[in-house]
């Protein structure tokens, strides 16, 4: 499958990239990350152009990366800086390098040759007064589409997260789906919110109004927002990094507005979120194993799988550089949750 390479993807948290080289698989490529002389992240192919040694097994000193085999030394832009056993100037050589930026506490990389002009998508609500945030990193078996569909899919929650996040009530729910100029959004109306651990711990009573939107943002981000009439709000943004055709590394930031209670709520919300995400990890691993065994994937999306088609429509258009889906198109679906 063609990966959407010319976009920003999170490589790792900033904390993870210190003074050692770090090998990461992104969009089917093994890259080595390190910090250059000014502390900025740099990414190169993790294969020395001399004789293919993994540069990630080498050392970083003074912002340059030294190959573990014969000591060739590279700068952050991939230019060969020194060959220790050659007197004078090293031969002209530049190993492939990849654009990197650091934002929101993450190192982002563009694994293609054309870095986007726009900065990476910011995580909403980070460091806003009254809001508390925490991040999680999860490796899923499954491609980016499979992850996005899962994160933006309500019906699975009554099965995979039964009693934890959703308990089936068979109540009719209205969903309004709208195509945007950078993805698509669904707004839910009359959504049930009872009889599950998460709802009873985190939401106010049913008398308080609630707005719930699920949003797909191109190319590989999902965002789920719950906003309550009493000022409480929860926002879950998941940024998907393709590892290869069957693995995706997901960086999730959960933010919530609960004022001074936030740090206390985080104490149980964080492990609870990990538990719920792991339920999805297990489900997607089973799906991926079945796709592998059968030698391909079959899909029968219903209109109640509300964002399935928009995700596929958008990503197909981006992959094939075809006409983009038209913003403003809107439709309504009835489902039971
Ligand atoms: S393989 Fe890297 S210096 Fe020889
Ligand atoms: Fe889920």
Automatic annotation (TrEMBL):
InterPro entries (alphabetical): Cholesterol_7-desaturase (IPR050584), Rieske_2Fe-2S (IPR017941), Rieske_2Fe-2S_sf (IPR036922), VanA_C_cat (IPR044043)
Gene Ontology terms for molecular function: 2 iron, 2 sulfur cluster binding; metal ion binding; oxidoreductase activity
Keywords: 2Fe-2S, Iron, Iron-sulfur, Metal-binding, Oxidoreductase
Record domain Rieske: where: 8-109
Protein name: Iron-sulfur cluster-binding protein Rieske family
């Amino acid at each position: 499958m063609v990966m959407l390479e010319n976009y920003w993807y999170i490589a790792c948290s900033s904390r993870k990239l210190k003074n050692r080289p770090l090998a990461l698989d992104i969009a089917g490529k093994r890259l080595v990350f390190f910090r250059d002389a000014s502390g900025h992240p740099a990414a190169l192919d993790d294969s020395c152009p001399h004789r293919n040694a993994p540069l990630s097994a080498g050392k970083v000193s003074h912002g340059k990366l030294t190959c573990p085999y014969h000591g060739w030394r590279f700068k952050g832009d991939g230019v060969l800086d020194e060959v220790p056993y050659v007197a004078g100037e090293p031969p002209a050589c530049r190993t492939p390098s990849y654009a990197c930026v650091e934002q929101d506490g993450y190192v982002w990389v563009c694994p293609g040759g054309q870095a986007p002009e726009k900065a990476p998508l910011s995580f909403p609500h980070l460091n806003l007064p009254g809001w508390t945030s925490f991040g999680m990193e999860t490796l899923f078996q499954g491609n980016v589409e499979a992850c996005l569909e899962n994160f933006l899919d309500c019906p699975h929650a009554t099965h995979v997260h039964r009693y934890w996040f959703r308990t089936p009530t068979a109540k009719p729910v209205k969903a309004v789906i709208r195509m945007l100029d950078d993805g698509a959004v669904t707004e839910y109306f009359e959504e049930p919110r009872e009889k599950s651990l998460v709802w009873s711990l985190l939401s106010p009573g049913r008398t308080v109004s609630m707005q719930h939107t699920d949003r797909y943002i191109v190319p590989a981000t999902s965002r789920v927002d719950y906003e309550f009439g009493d000022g409480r709000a929860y926002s879950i943004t998941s940024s998907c990094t393709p590892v290869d055709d069957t693995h995706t590394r997901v960086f999730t930031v959960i933010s919530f507005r609960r004022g001074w209670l936030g740090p206390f709520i985080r104490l149980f919300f964080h492990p609870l979120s990990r538990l719920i995400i792991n339920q999805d990890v297990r489900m997607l691993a089973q799906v991926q194993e079945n796709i592998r065994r059968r030698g391909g994937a079959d899909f029968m999306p219903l209109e109640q799988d509300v964002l399935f088609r928009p995700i596929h429509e958008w990503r197909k258009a981006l992959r094939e550089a075809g006409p983009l889906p038209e913003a403003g198109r809107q439709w309504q679906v009835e489902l039971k949750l």
